[in-house]
Amino acid sequence: MSYLYLAHLSVFTVAALLCLGSIPRARSIKHDETREGFVAILLTCSLWAIGYLGYFLLPTPEVKVASYIFGLIAALACVGAWLYFSAAYTGRSPRQAPYPRLIVGGFLGIVLVKVTNPIHQLYFTTTWVTEPFPHLALHQGILHWIILAISYVVIGISFFILLERFYHAGTSARPLVALVGITALPIAFNIYGVLGSSLLPIWYEPFGVAIFSVGTLFVYFERFEAIQFAGDTDTPTIFLDRDWTIRDTNLAATTMFPELDEGIGQSLDAVLPMAAEAATDGDPNPIRINHEGSPRYYHVSTTSISTGEVVTGRVLTLTDVSEQEQYRRRLERQNERLERFASIVSHDLRNPLSVAEGYLELARETGENESLDKVARAHDRMFELIEDLLELAKSGMNIGETETVELANVVHDCWQMIASAEATLTVQEDLGMSMEADRDRLGELFENLFRNAIEHGGSDVAITVGTLPGKRGFYVEDTGPGIPEADHEKVLEPGYSTAEDGTGFGLAIVKEIVEAHGWEIRVTDGTDGGARFEISGVESVE
Prior knowledge:
Blueprint: H1 3-26, H2 32-57, H3 61-89, H4 100-115, H5 117-120, E1 124-129, E2 135-140, H6 142-169, H7 174-184, H8 186-195, H9 205-219, H10 221-229, E3 237-241, E4 246-249, H11 251-256, H12 268-271, H13 273-281, E5 287-291, E6 294-307, E7 310-320, H14 322-347, H15 350-366, H16 369-395, E8 403-406, H17 407-415, E9 424-427, E10 434-437, H18 439-457, E11 462-467, E12 473-478, H19 506-516, E13 520-525, E14 531-536, E15 540-541
Parallel strand pairs: 9-11
Antiparallel strand pairs: 1-2, 3-4, 3-7, 5-6, 6-7, 8-10, 10-15, 11-12, 12-14, 13-14
Helix pairs in contact: 1-2, 1-9, 2-3, 2-9, 3-4, 3-6, 6-7, 7-9, 15-16, 16-19, 17-18, 18-19
């Protein structure tokens, strides 16, 4: 018996056994449509191989041809199953495929062509030959090549959508990419079978499918499911073992967190400690991670990978929820601001209103104009409070359109609005920095700081404006009496003032403008004992 004959029998026997033996394992795939597709691939591929075995082993030409046609029908079904599986695995629901009747009709039409080949013989013809071993030789017709071309187009689409998903999954998918490549290798044997003389001109794909099945289901099963569980391939995904050691990452993760490039084999806690803490504690709140100088917020979620009841690994995903989190924080700030406003209205406005009511009642009883003067002063005080309150509300709103501004120019323009002939302003030479800001709001910030310095430091106070080291911000300091360290935070709160006639809103407005730009403000002592306000987190524009 020819060794080539035995080799052909062995290839298809092994392929059939491997595919049939893999079906129980495939039934453990968690995703319904993916499981259906994979089981269909294994079943149709095994029937395909069995049909070819019948072509080699059955005794008469008629039953050989019938078995070969059975194998061809199973092969066509396997092509459809492969597309179904690929679509399901990559999140494209195959049950929602367009024109389902056309697809089913096309399949049945091709089946009819194959079944009726003994009549029209346009698909293939047969003759008995003795080389390379005695067998019923197949001579493929025009319909064979047309249907083969259609099948390869479908297979090509399936391979593309699988490889696209694996590519985005990064290094974690390399073994699966290799397995898909092995599945396509038998195409070379098909071509050699057509052009050569030692292999028959039939499809050898069942063996490639068998290798893919065994490799995926028994060697890389956890990784196979992990890549699918990662969901959106643009989401940073980290693959962990059961001890929370980093085993792999996708491209999105290494792009967003470069430290993961050197983190393979290390504990997640050592590389991304905040993500590890959120994952192990099950904290539903997003974590904050600085990315390129800007804060980003991520929701951390984990999916366990199990074999039976044993957890063998985990998939950790970090979903960017920065926009939602920033919106939520803005709402919280607005609610806090509303509460503060309600407190101010109920407390600070009530005092002058009570004074006005008292003196108005006294004026009605005595008719003295002096009481009415005091009523007028109380009303002026209320108007002043209301104007500052409205200014505070406006400063806390989102900033308007930003532009590139020269800091020194804004400072000089604002100084012209300050009515104090004796106070002096010194602008450091290094203040020549440009920045992205809402020019009007920035002007309000400096005007309030200048007025605060004059109000507390006297009309002859000296004010200095300069940049912080590295041009990451700027400062305003004065030569006034300064602010006690215990009050450094309090002075930024609405309504807090040490001046008798102050409303306590000026510095609160400054803080709101700073935070609306995404900057930070710090109160400290000046070099000459006065107050110093440092605004940091400002991006300098070169």
